[in-house]
RNA sequence: GCCGGCUUAGCUCAAUGGCAGAGCAACUGACUUGUAAUCAGUAGGUUGUAGGUUCAAGUCCUAUAGCCGGCUCCA
């Protein structure tokens, strides 16, 4: 007797071994039809899996992540199968499901063009309709290698060779196509009701630039045609939020061909930027930071001492002054260290928090540039905290809380990663271990979930990274907290302890926004250009209905300016509908429509970007409403 | 940096190898207008740049720059 416990706690009993698919059928035909995979004792498996012992079972459908991934994984095999049918000489690499679809990497000796993509997609649709059932089989290692060698699939051979000893080596066959694969797969390709190839991109074999670049085909698949349409519409909508497009349309910033990676901020962008910076200063003053400003260009000597020359030279710009070698700073830390070093410090002063809105330049490779998100010159909202070792945990915790409180103001969701020692780094293993453990301790104390990003730390220390999402779901590192035992050593920093002896301080390097540029890029996409009133470059636009109201409008404009509200008037000889449309398109939070009635009553008619016509109110009521929104930083998303 | 694609007026986009165009924006004029686009007119271009093929190149070829999507890398 086999006892199978379902999700709802119900227990089914069977006399003989049975497939998960059959169990689904016994529960109901609806579930059977919708079923894509099975979660057996917590593991996602094929529906074809034979259950021969007591276990828990959950039938996974489209709404389950495991169900979606399984369907898309099979879709990637359909893609590979189609490619093999059309171009038998193409070599197969890997093809997993990813967040919104799947990809498969191929080694083809010809470029896969959009036209070829269309042909492949047609073939895929055929395969889907053929209703192929993936069949799983297992081979011992040597036979598996032999099998893939015979099929002339060198990448598969390499994959098998690198599988750990004792690992089961499984294959899936659907129709004439067989692929090395851990699974799981859906029971029939005809469950894929909508499939679409999206793009081709280069991708290094096994993600290393030392290896050959393969061609990666991205696609997505759904169980319903309408879901695919919805998804494509969603992607279209997301593209409208692209900060590069909105930056141009709303005249916030631009990047010109003359300065790739060097953004220009236009007047409206500078309003947003200046507000962010003054808010930053206000908060940091409260949190016990003082502010410094260090030079952009400093003698090359300093960068040898800091270790940047050895570990960061590739990313730096250099110049000469009076026959001496100088470097443009890629980081603010050495400057801050010189400030620290210029005075004696007592343990009583620690932790010493030196903030700096520092403009840094980094030579990023051209392919990495991306709007404001990845540039070659950016301002870090940096701070260097010098402290005693005993203060590490509290300080890191403090910075975590500071970052969290900042992101909450903007309504951001974030995730946290812990980046550990990279290959190219300096310092002893012991220092690195201590530093990494200190960060873990702080993360645990803060109760934060985090994922480990192996080998992605700074060359001088491990770091906690805060990632924010852009409009199409890519995440960007913004805030970071880096713990550093190396720089204090290199620069021979010290403080006088309670015992009157010299001691070595520890440093934290940290940013909240990350870079003002990147943060603004995220902000623009997050709000789709419709900034909350406190950040909006123009908060109120006054729209007289006819030129009879122009004088009244100008008077109100002055009075609003006196209240510290950013206002402008549209006195052009245009219809009111036209003026409103334009203000709306420019995402200005409030419009004041002024005609004969308002002039007569000395009132204002208010139109909100978000809620439309709010009707007439007194000038004072309007000012109070807007001021409250600004002062409380009220955000409607 | 690598792979693929793209680049035409300020913006969005047209133009079989055969006279470079439209809409919006700008400017001028008329309309004095009530909650998302009034009408008419004017101006705007060495088709990213440099070569080449051709009687003829926006269109084909080569190189190059920038951009877009990825890979790699990172705030």
Automatic annotation (TrEMBL):
<dbReference type="Pfam" id="PF00587">
    <property type="entry name" value="tRNA-synt_2b"/>
</dbReference>
<dbReference type="InterPro" id="IPR018163">
    <property type="entry name" value="Thr/Ala-tRNA-synth_IIc_edit"/>
</dbReference>
<dbReference type="GO" id="GO:0000049">
    <property type="term" value="F:tRNA binding"/>
</dbReference>
<keyword id="KW-0820">tRNA-binding</keyword>
<keyword id="KW-0436">Ligase</keyword>
<keyword id="KW-0030">Aminoacyl-tRNA synthetase</keyword>
<keyword id="KW-0963">Cytoplasm</keyword>
<feature type="domain" description="TGS">
    <location>
        <begin position="1"/>
        <end position="61"/>
    </location>
</feature>
<keyword id="KW-0648">Protein biosynthesis</keyword>
<dbReference type="GO" id="GO:0005737">
    <property type="term" value="C:cytoplasm"/>
</dbReference>
<dbReference type="InterPro" id="IPR033728">
    <property type="entry name" value="ThrRS_core"/>
</dbReference>
<dbReference type="GO" id="GO:0140096">
    <property type="term" value="F:catalytic activity, acting on a protein"/>
</dbReference>
<dbReference type="GO" id="GO:0005524">
    <property type="term" value="F:ATP binding"/>
</dbReference>
<dbReference type="InterPro" id="IPR004154">
    <property type="entry name" value="Anticodon-bd"/>
</dbReference>
<dbReference type="GO" id="GO:0006435">
    <property type="term" value="P:threonyl-tRNA aminoacylation"/>
</dbReference>
<keyword id="KW-0479">Metal-binding</keyword>
<keyword id="KW-0547">Nucleotide-binding</keyword>
<dbReference type="InterPro" id="IPR036621">
    <property type="entry name" value="Anticodon-bd_dom_sf"/>
</dbReference>
<dbReference type="GO" id="GO:0016740">
    <property type="term" value="F:transferase activity"/>
</dbReference>
<comment type="subunit">
    <text>Homodimer.</text>
</comment>
<dbReference type="InterPro" id="IPR047246">
    <property type="entry name" value="ThrRS_anticodon"/>
</dbReference>
<keyword id="KW-0694">RNA-binding</keyword>
<dbReference type="InterPro" id="IPR012675">
    <property type="entry name" value="Beta-grasp_dom_sf"/>
</dbReference>
<keyword id="KW-0862">Zinc</keyword>
<dbReference type="InterPro" id="IPR002314">
    <property type="entry name" value="aa-tRNA-synt_IIb"/>
</dbReference>
<dbReference type="InterPro" id="IPR006195">
    <property type="entry name" value="aa-tRNA-synth_II"/>
</dbReference>
<comment type="similarity">
    <text>Belongs to the class-II aminoacyl-tRNA synthetase family.</text>
</comment>
<dbReference type="GO" id="GO:0004829">
    <property type="term" value="F:threonine-tRNA ligase activity"/>
</dbReference>
<dbReference type="InterPro" id="IPR012676">
    <property type="entry name" value="TGS-like"/>
</dbReference>
<dbReference type="GO" id="GO:0046872">
    <property type="term" value="F:metal ion binding"/>
</dbReference>
<protein>
    <recommendedName>
        <fullName>Threonine--tRNA ligase</fullName>
        <ecNumber>6.1.1.3</ecNumber>
    </recommendedName>
</protein>
<dbReference type="InterPro" id="IPR045864">
    <property type="entry name" value="aa-tRNA-synth_II/BPL/LPL"/>
</dbReference>
<feature type="binding site">
    <location>
        <position position="333"/>
    </location>
    <ligand>
        <name>Zn(2+)</name>
    </ligand>
</feature>
<dbReference type="Pfam" id="PF03129">
    <property type="entry name" value="HGTP_anticodon"/>
</dbReference>
<feature type="binding site">
    <location>
        <position position="509"/>
    </location>
    <ligand>
        <name>Zn(2+)</name>
    </ligand>
</feature>
<dbReference type="InterPro" id="IPR004095">
    <property type="entry name" value="TGS"/>
</dbReference>
<feature type="binding site">
    <location>
        <position position="384"/>
    </location>
    <ligand>
        <name>Zn(2+)</name>
    </ligand>
</feature>
<feature type="domain" description="Aminoacyl-transfer RNA synthetases class-II family profile">
    <location>
        <begin position="266"/>
        <end position="532"/>
    </location>
</feature>
<dbReference type="InterPro" id="IPR012947">
    <property type="entry name" value="tRNA_SAD"/>
</dbReference>
<dbReference type="Pfam" id="PF02824">
    <property type="entry name" value="TGS"/>
</dbReference>
<dbReference type="InterPro" id="IPR002320">
    <property type="entry name" value="Thr-tRNA-ligase_IIa"/>
</dbReference>
<dbReference type="Pfam" id="PF07973">
    <property type="entry name" value="tRNA_SAD"/>
</dbReference>
């Amino acid at each position: 007797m086999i006892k199978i416990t379902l999700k709802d706690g119900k227990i089914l009993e069977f006399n003989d071994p049975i497939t998960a698919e059959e169990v689904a059928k016994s529960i109901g035909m609806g579930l059977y039809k919708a079923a894509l995979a099975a979660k057996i004792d917590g593991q996602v498996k094929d529906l074809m899996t034979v259950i021969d012992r007591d276990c828990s079972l959950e039938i996974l459908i489209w709404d389950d992540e495991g169900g979606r991934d399984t369907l898309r994984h099979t879709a990637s095999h359909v893609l590979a199968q189609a490619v093999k049918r059309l171009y038998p000489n193409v070599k197969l690499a890997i093809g997993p499901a990813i967040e919104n679809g799947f990809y498969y990497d191929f080694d083809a000796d010809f470029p896969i063009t959009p036209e070829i993509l269309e042909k492949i997609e047609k073939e895929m649709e055929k395969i889907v309709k053929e209703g192929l059932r993936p069949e799983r089989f297992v081979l011992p290692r040597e036979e598996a290698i032999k099998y893939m060698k015979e099929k002339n699939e060198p990448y598969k051979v390499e994959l098998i060779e690198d599988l750990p000893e004792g690992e089961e080596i499984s294959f899936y066959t659907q129709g004439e196509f067989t692929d090395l694969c851990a699974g799981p797969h859906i029971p029939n390709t005809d469950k894929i009701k909508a499939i679409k190839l999206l793009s081709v991109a280069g991708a290094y074999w096994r993600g290393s630039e030392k290896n050959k670049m393969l061609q990666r085909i991205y696609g997505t698949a759904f169980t319903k045609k309408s879901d695919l349409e919805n998804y494509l519409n969603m992607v279209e909508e997301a593209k409208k939020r692209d900060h590069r497009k909105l930056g141009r349309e709303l005249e916030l910033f631009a990047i010109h061909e003359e300065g790739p990676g060097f953004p220009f901020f236009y007047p409206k962008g500078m309003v947003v930027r200046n507000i962010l910076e003054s808010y930053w200063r206000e908060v940091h003053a409260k949190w016990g930071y003082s502010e410094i400003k260090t030079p952009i260009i400093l003698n090359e000597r300093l960068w040898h001492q800091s270790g940047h020359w050895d570990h960061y030279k590739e990313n730096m710009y250099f110049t000469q002054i009076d026959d001496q070698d100088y470097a443009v700073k890629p980081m603010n830390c050495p400057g801050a260290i010189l400030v620290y070093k210029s005075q004696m410090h007592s343990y009583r002063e620690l932790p010493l928090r030196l903030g700096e809105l520092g403009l840094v330049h980094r030579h990023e490779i051209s392919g990495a540039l991306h709007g404001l998100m990845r540039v070659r010159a950016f301002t870090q909202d940096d701070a260097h905290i010098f402290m005693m070792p005993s203060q590490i945990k509290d300080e890191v915790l403090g910075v975590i809380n500071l970052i969290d409180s900042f992101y909450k103001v903007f309504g951001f969701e974030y995730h946290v990663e812990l980046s550990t020692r990279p290959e190219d780094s300096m310092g002893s293993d012991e220092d690195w271990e201590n530093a990494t453990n200190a960060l873990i301790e702080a993360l645990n104390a803060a109760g934060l979930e985090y994922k480990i990003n192996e080998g992605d730390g700074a060359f001088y220390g491990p770091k906690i990274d805060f990632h924010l999402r852009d409009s199409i779901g890519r995440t960007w590192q913004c805030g970071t907290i880096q713990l550093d035992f190396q720089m204090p050593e290199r620069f021979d920093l010290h403080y006088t302890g309670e015992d009157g002896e010299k001691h070595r301080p520890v440093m934290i390097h940290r940013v909240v926004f990350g870079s003002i540029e990147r943060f603004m890029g995220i902000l623009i996409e997050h709000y789709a250009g419709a900034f909350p009133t406190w950040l909006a470059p123009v908060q109120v636009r006054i729209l007289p209905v006819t030129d009879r109201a122009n004088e009244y409008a100008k008077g109100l404009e002055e009075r609003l300016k006196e209240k510290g509200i950013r206002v402008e008037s549209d006195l052009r000889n245009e219809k009111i509908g036209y003026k409103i449309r334009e203000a709306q398109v420019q995402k200005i939070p409030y419009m004041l429509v002024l005609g004969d009635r308002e002039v007569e009553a000395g009132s204002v008619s208010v139109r909100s970007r978000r809620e439309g016509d709010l009707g007439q109110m007194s000038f004072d009521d309007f000012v109070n409403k807007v001021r409250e929104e600004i002062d409380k930083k009220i955000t409607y998303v």
